[in-house]
Amino acid sequence: SLSTVLQQLQQSLPALKPEYDFSAIAYKWQDQQLLPIEQPKRMYLDDLKGIERQTQKVIQNTLQFLNGLPANDVLLTGSRGTGKSSIVRALLTAYADQGLRLIEIERDDLSDLPKIQHLIQHRPEKYIVYCDDLAFNAEDENYRSLKSVLDGSLQSGSSNFIIYATSNRRHLLPEFMHENTPIMRADVPQHHELHPQEAIEEKISLSDRFGLWLSFYPMDQNLYLEIVAHYLQKANISMSEEVRAEALRWCQARGQRSGRSAYQFSKHWIGSQQLAKVSVSQP
Q1: For residues 95 and 45, is the Cβ–Cβ distance under 8 A?
Q2: In this structure, are strands 26-30 and 33-36 parallel, antiparallel, or unpaired?
Q3: For residue range 136-184, what is the model confidence (pLDDT) as tens digits?
Q4: Cβ-Cβ contacts under 8 Å for 70 (sequence gap 6 or more)
Q5: Neighbouring-strand partners of residue 127
Q6: What is the CA 255 to chain-centroid distance, rounded?
Q7: For the whole model, what pTM was predicted?
Q8: Rounded CA gap, 216 and 219, in Å?
């Protein structure tokens, strides 16, 4: 019957490509699809204390990009919790109304970068494709995809696409002690690299592909307390000796002084103070 023929024909046709909703300001690339992030976490450039120099350089590069001027791919490296990803999220908050958009991509999906570029190539907005916590293990071939993209093969015809990445590793790939040890030819097992220096150079060359590198460092106690005080002030809470002592205990328990731990402590303290007021007001 005709319905049977139509059903068979429908099954043999390729699946329709999803029509993307480009009304969101942030997206996540997942399962070969661009998924809108409904309520991206809002960060503010004014909240980024102690990393003003790095922030200013990223802002300048981003403004060049937004204005259609030459701009670099950016690699932000350093200790955890020091504000690397916060800068990227704060850029979105600050410049979304100027057409800035964010696409988050996992390290394992980097080979899909050409697909993403194809999807957005005719869009008027400007897209930061953002890979958080970028690092590769020794056997991972995925970094070659990123390397070819950063070499310019992807961006040669695109002015609305730039890559920002964060990493705890300066060179993105692990470097082993034996790679820096002089090799005695008599000692080389057959399965070892014959030209190990070339392999080392290849590892380092990946981070070289990023035009702008910025390093982030652990903070001292004064800066940590300054960030806590900043967040408390936004909630109209003053920095007493009690709060100061609690804030220091908090970071010692977590084993790090960072912008992240300062922010997390301030949330804990502000929330506990507000909960106490609610409890008092309730019969």
Answers
A1: no
A2: antiparallel
A3: 655 566 667 777 777 764 554 458 999 999 987 655 555 444 444 444 4
A4: 64
A5: 101, 161
A6: 23
A7: 0.78
A8: 9
